[in-house]
Prior knowledge:
Blueprint lengths: L7 E5 L8 H17 L4 H5 L10 H6 L7 H22 L1 H22 L11 H14 L4 E7 L2 E6 H18 L9 H18 L9
Antiparallel strand pairs: 1-2, 2-3
Amino acid sequence: MLNERGFFPIGDSVRSRSFPLVTVTLIFTNILVFILSSALPSTFILQFAFVPAMPSIVTLFTHMFLHADLFHLLGNMWFFWIFGDNVEDRLGRLRFILLYFLSGIGAVTLHFVLNPTSTVPLVGASGAISGVLGAYILLFPKAKVHVYYGYFMSGNIPAFLYAFIWFGFQLLYGIATLGANAGIAFFAHIGGFIAGIILSIILCPKAGRVRV
């Protein structure tokens, strides 16, 4: 996500009407997997990462629960908490689960298309969470996102503007690092984001969307 780049979401103006059970469960599952995997050899963990040169159906899903380090985990989970509860509330739990995992698959699909021979393991929930962000800006485009800019500066901006800036950074960094091992799969973020927008259109009737 963009937490490494000084454009970090602190909160939003939308309040959920129900307890975000799926969001909380996924967050705790990611934390638990990280704790357990920290005690295992890295060679074992890499078996469950997605490797474009050696794709498998299993790693399409398992890579979403692995994280490179503690900051990677915490950044993703915080980002997910900010936007996930509202999207889950609007879509309902089953459709939210479909959105999350299909967005994650959409993320690795674009990453694979652009890096089919790469042997660099891909781990993290960023692609799936980018899909949640895509759904959020479609369902709540006028919501306000409270953003930290850096140097103790923060402010509120419309969700659609936040997503536009976020997407722009992903695209710029993605193009700049295309073909290189940048350490961050920017095009996976883009793939998940686009998948989330498409899926939210399919999963949520237009009449059910909220403008705040």
